[in-house]
Amino acid sequence: MMKKLFTALLSLSVACAHAQNADSVTIRKIYNEALANGKSYEWLRHLTKQVGPRLSGSEGAQKAVDWTKQVMEQQGFDRVFLQDVMVPHWVRGAKEEAFIHNGKQKVTVPIAALGGSVATAPKGVEAGVIEVKSFPELRAMSPDKVKGKIVFFNRPMDPTKINTFEAYGGAVEQRANGATEAAKLGAVGAIVRSMTNVHDDYPHVGGMRYATGVPLIPTAAISTNGADLLSKSLAENPNLTFYFKQNCESLPDAKSYNVVGEIKGSEKPDEIIVVGGHLDSWDLAEGAHDDGAGCVQSIEVLRILKTLGIKPKRTIRAVMFMNEENGLRGGVQYADLAKKNNEKHIAAVESDNGGFTPRGFGIVGTPAQREKVTPWKPLLAPYGLTDIGAGGGGADIGPLAQLGTVLFGFKPDSQRYFDYHHTMVDRFETVSQRELELGAASMASLIYLLDQYGL
């Protein structure tokens, strides 16, 4: 009896070792293909340089839809299609103006309207300034002190956080909700320190939202150098005034699309694995890291599998989501359609943290589902993918969680991401070809393992 048990265990061990070796060989081939013959870098060049900024509802967004659809069709994927989605259409208008008025001296500072903000009056707004570091600090003030003033939110990202996304999360609420909190106390405008640890002259923009029943006041991001100057000037002269003028406008919702390409599963075609990024970018940026990189990496995943002749058991979809930056309409629409069509999405992988050196994947799922990934770690570790465990998935794939889908967020090194995030310097030239291609190979390797073993 013991001999039979030993023989069975030995056979199982040999089979597992053989499978691991076969997987190791395939993953090596995936990396070889991405690094020697990768297409993602040239695709990114076209998306950033020929298409450019792609804010939802814009001409650039439509060009991006048309082009990515064409790219996937040219790759010969089994199916390429569009999903209709109505998106917000906010436009910036003429370039913003701002200055610190300190006595007779006017010092110009760089600002940019936050996405979704209303415009100032045609002549702009000028008022005294209240500087705060937090909402509780603002709420503790009497309305009389704030009424008629511009509230200046000057809480920096915490530089001691090793994970810069954690630092971002600790500061971004002032960008998202600052105007509402200021308006509740009668402020006439809100200025928000840019979300970056870098000291520069580029406003880092992003989305904001208004609460119902609260006056809509204009709000803008100020560069970190501008914020430091304003703070220093206020310390020297609390009675100074700040002037800003912006010309933004919210137009009626516009029709746009998610762009989807897929390779049909050979054994379980009704089980779907998604890999994707968001196609839209802020209007000031080429959107190279955010999120052109994630889009071209996702298309590259399917190209690699097809080129290597890897016939997936399950259907693999690359999805270019529309409207992550100022509405998340594409991600919500994709999940709604998946539910309506009774589609079974077993896993989704998103790349929306830049095109930097791969570090791992965050997983949103049950402990048992995360445990199924454990045997894959030795296969991925040789490629620098050591940070694999509980973590965030991604904004666009987040709505799929309601369907029981396990979410994976691709995690590149985070140290440089917020140097470029939501600014005019998020350009193609800031992306390393090798880092971008390593990321695509990392995602393709995870997709391969998810397809082979499921969850």
TrEMBL record:
Cross-referenced Pfam families: Peptidase_M28
Entry keyword Hydrolase: yes
GO cellular component terms listed in the entry, alphabetical order: extracellular region; lysosome
Key word Secreted present: yes
Compartments reported by the entry: Endoplasmic reticulum; Golgi apparatus; Lysosome; Secreted
Residue stretches making up the Peptidase M28 domain: 258-437
Coiled-coil segments: none
Molecular function per GO: carboxypeptidase activity; metal ion binding; metallodipeptidase activity
InterPro entries, per the entry: CPQ (IPR039866), Peptidase_M28 (IPR007484)
Assembly: Homodimer. The monomeric form is inactive while the homodimer is active.
The protein's name in its UniProt record: Carboxypeptidase Q
Organismal lineage: Bacteria, Pseudomonadati, Bacteroidota, Cytophagia, Cytophagales
